[in-house]
Specification:
This is Fatty acid desaturase. Helix content is about 60%, strand content about 5%. By secondary structure, the chain is mainly alpha-helical. The radius of gyration is 19 Å and the shape is globular.
Length: about 300
């Protein structure tokens, strides 16, 4: 695909609008009980859009200029909340380890603990992924060597997520987390927000985000590049997700901005609908009959190793 351009102005407008509307939803819901539920629902879906913007930034696709991409990525991180650098490190590693044993949640081996596998699976569907991501920031802030600890190295899904984190990353991560703390301290003080309101809003947002995080990977081919599916959904939902339902296309072409994903997949069909795939996830993990692909290196990922062999 030639002449690829990042929609800088549109992405800037969406980033600032999302930040403003998200804060407004919390404030209005906190001060006006009659609007609490509508504002909570609005915030939960703004949260999805905010993560989609954060995701673009982790791929350096939110802004053409590196500095502005970083700034808007950090701002999006404020609302999650997460360190932008942690999000970038873990998401890049997700692309490198996609559908390997490190990211196999939907299948189990005969020697796996079914109690653990089913518990892990349904905890994600019930909203557990979001608090793990958030509290992970706090742990890394105080204990940056935690990813290398014996505890994490015994957890298959956590062994490689932050293995590339270096001392410069730790400094950046700590600064970003301090900025997040300062931002929310200021917001709570200026608008005199109830902490209970914040908790309610983020429980809703965290559930809405967590329960659908694995939806485009569940039961897909066990292949680092092709291990995702495209899902059909309505236009509004698609725009909220910034075409995130076209995830197979994204994994084949992670360099493409969100505005190109649907066009890139125009000659390909969607595998199923978003809703049907979501319902299928609730049937639980299945027995694995495929061999695990090998994780790819960062060099292979950024060079698009084998990507062309999978593209049509």
């Amino acid at each position: 695909m030639q002449n690829i351009q990042i929609p800088n102005r549109l992405n800037l407008l969406m980033s600032l609008s999302n930040l403003t509307l998200s804060i407004a939803a919390i404030v209005v819901g906190d001060k006006h009980p009659d609007y609490f539920i509508p504002c909570l629902i609005l915030f939960a879906f703004l949260h999805l859009n905010n993560y989609a913007l954060l995701h673009e930034a982790t791929h350096s696709n939110l802004q053409s200029y590196k500095r502005w991409n970083y700034v808007l990525g950090v701002l999006s991180g404020f609302m999650f909340p997460t360190s932008f650098s942690i999000a970038t490190l873990t998401h890049t590693k997700h692309h490198c380890c996609n559908r390997t044993d490190h990211e196999m949640f939907d299948y189990y081996y005969p020697n796996d603990s079914l109690f653990y596998k089913f518990g892990q699976w349904y905890s994600v569907l019930l909203g557990g992924f979001w608090p793990v991501a958030v509290f992970g920031n706090i742990i890394i802030f105080f204990y940056p060597s935690f990813p290398k600890s014996k505890f994490i190295q015994k957890v298959r899904s956590g062994q490689r997520m932050l293995e590339d984190m270096n001392s410069k990353d730790v400094i950046r991560i700590r600064l970003e987390i301090l900025l997040i703390f300062g931002f929310w301290t200021l917001v709570v003080y200026v608008f005199n927000l109830s902490i209970a309101t914040l908790i309610y809003f983020y429980v809703a947002a965290g559930f809405n985000w967590s329960t659908r995080q694995y939806i485009t990977h569940a039961f897909s081919k066990r292949d680092v590049w092709e291990g995702a599916i495209n899902l059909k959904t309505n236009l509004l939902h698609e725009k909220i997700l910034l075409n995130g339902n076209w995830d197979l296309e994204h994994h084949l072409h992670p360099e493409l901005p969100w505005t190109y994903l649907k066009k890139s997949a125009e000659n390909k069909k969607t595998d199923t609908t978003y809703f049907k795939q979501y319902l299928k996830m609730w049937t639980g993990p299945k027995k694995n009959f495929e061999s695990s692909p090998k994780p790819i290196s960062l060099k292979e990922y950024f060079n698009g190793y084998k990507r062309e062999n999978h593209s049509t």
